[in-house]
Amino acid sequence: MKRHLYSILLVLIMAVIGMTPLIARSECTEAMPELFERVSPCVVSISALGLDSFKMGSGVSTAVGSGFIIDDEGLVLTNAHVVFGRQVIIVTLDDGRKIQAELLGADPLFDLAVLRIPVPNEGNAKAVLGDSDAVRIGQDVITIGNPFGLEQTLTRGVISGLNRIVPGSPLMAVPLIQTDAPINPGNSGGPLLNRCGDVIGINTSILAEAQNIGFAIPINVAKRLIPDIVKHGRVIRPWLGISGKLVKKELMEIINLPFVDGFLIETVESGSPAQEAGMHGGGLPVTIAGTELLLGGDILTEINGQSLDNAESFLKAIGSLKVGDKVQLTLFHKGKTRSVELKLPERPILPGDLRPNASSTLLPMKGPVTKLPLQ
């Protein structure tokens, strides 16, 4: 009997010991200066030189952003809008060394890019990638980056919101983490960290008109896409060719229009499967209860029979689509419902993918820093 009780007690002790690191990790109390000293060596400054032959004058400009080393092979994660389409990319390490980087691949749609830098003999610090699914509103966070080219700058704040879809985002936009930690031009591509120093997001954009409303790409999204970016140089995804907003019919009752729950199609991309199928975009800009809409287009109510009546079902339906799939869409337009079937090709790189973003800094070769609004 005693031996049996001893065995039970031993199991409980081992269980508690096994849980201790998890408990400690969720209640990290490392002082901020020590946390900065430990994590900042993995954060790099990025300067990317671009040449626009259609621009007046020299047409040469430099985008300045941030990034962080993610493995022992010298892979650096950053934003696509900092480096994509640039001719020369220079990475400045924590100790001041400047190294030319190779762009392995980028995904302009989710604003992610992976660089490779030569690994010095003594090696580099690397970031610990956390779990963005575990973050909670109100949780303390910090950012380390290079705002306006000022290297290794720390700011702090909290998680202000989760699963944010920024207005104007394309159809397959990723739900973002919102934070009030000050993010400035030049912070693009830098890490959003929890109090344990784990990366939970990649800083990507700000609302220029607001006070401390910034957004980060969840690190779990990046972890899912990095293998494709490194292997193929891009993320292979299907192309439907529409953008818009999720709407509720209650909103439209304000102006007495026939509406249904679903995805309001505001624009249809030229040459896309949606255009070939005769899908309609909007043409009447209105603001209803503070929401800007482009009315007149189709409302996508179902994908393969799955209703799009909330953000969760919408993202689930979109995430299930693959290149080569035949997809059945249910559309509502002017009080009538119809169905169309499409075969999804791979999504090409579109002109809108190459736009700059508000949390990067664009430095002309001559002249002051130019602040860029969120697009």
Q: What's the short story on this structure?
A:
This protein is α+β, with helices and mostly antiparallel strands and 375 residues long.
SS field, number of helical segments: 7
Give the number of DSSP strands: 22
* Mean pLDDT over the full residue set: 80
CATH architecture of the domain at 242-343: Roll
Q: CATH fold name of the domain at 242-343, please?
A: Pdz3 Domain
Q: Please state roughly what percent of the residues sit in beta strands, choosing from under 5%, 5-15%, 15-25%, 25-35%, 35-45% or over 45%.
A: 25-35%
Identify the quaternary structure here: single chain
Question: How does the major sheet shape up?
Answer: 8 strands, antiparallel
Question: CATH homologous superfamily of the domain at 242-343 - what is it?
Answer: PDZ domain
Shape type: globular
Low-confidence stretches: 1-25, 355-375
Distance N terminus to C terminus?
70 Å
Secondary-structure element sequence?
Answer: HHEEEHEEEEEEEEEEHEHEHEEEEHEEE
Question: Radius of gyration over alpha carbons?
Answer: 23 Å
Structural class: alpha+beta
Helix content: 10-25%
CATH class of the domain at 242-343 reads: Mainly Beta
Explained architecture:
- The chain has helices at 2-26, 32-39, 80-83, 219-232, 249-252, 273-276, 311-319; strands at 43-51, 60-69, 75-78, 88-92, 98-100, 102-107, 112-116, 140-145, 153-164, 176-179, 191-194, 199-206, 214-218, 242-247, 262-268, 284-288, 291-295, 299-303, 306-307, 326-333, 336-343, 361-364.
- It has 375 residues and is α+β, with helices and mostly antiparallel strands.
- The protein has 7 helices and 22 strands.
- It has a domain at 242-343: PDZ domain (Pdz3 Domain), CATH 2.30.42.10.
- The strands form 4 sheets. Strands 1, 2, 3, 4, 5, 6, 7 and 22 form an 8-stranded antiparallel β-sheet that branches.
- Helices cover 18% and strands 35% of the residues.
